[in-house]
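Give me the fold.
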Amino acid sequence: MKKILFLMTLCLAFLAVTPLFADKISKEHESEYFYVNVPIARVFPYRKGYVVEYKKSLAGRARVYLPMEWFSGAATKGEYISMPTGPAWPYLTIYYKNGEFSHVRLYVRRDLRHETWGNIPLNVNLDEHFENVTDIKLEF
């Protein structure tokens, strides 16, 4: 009986101490990046970039403007990923490094005839929205 009580006490002590070491181990492997996935309602290609209309948390929509230069060159801030038909996209993934905007990935449907793609009329000028864009500020 004393052996069983001793073994149970030893097991409980082990279980009580294990989480203390787990926290120390996880902080060593913690990434400096975190991300936010945002479901997209519509994507509008524009000559200076992409106008992305995304769904806010309750009701309503908001827009972000992604300049074309973010998606080209060696040190890009954006990645355009064309996906086949599927229920998981379109969406926008915004990455932050140490709390600051790092880069964005735009996951869209490959088929430009899909309802999530839109067109901006030629007489609409959105150029000022694409000037001096350095990060993305989301509305929730």
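The chain has a mean pLDDT of 84.
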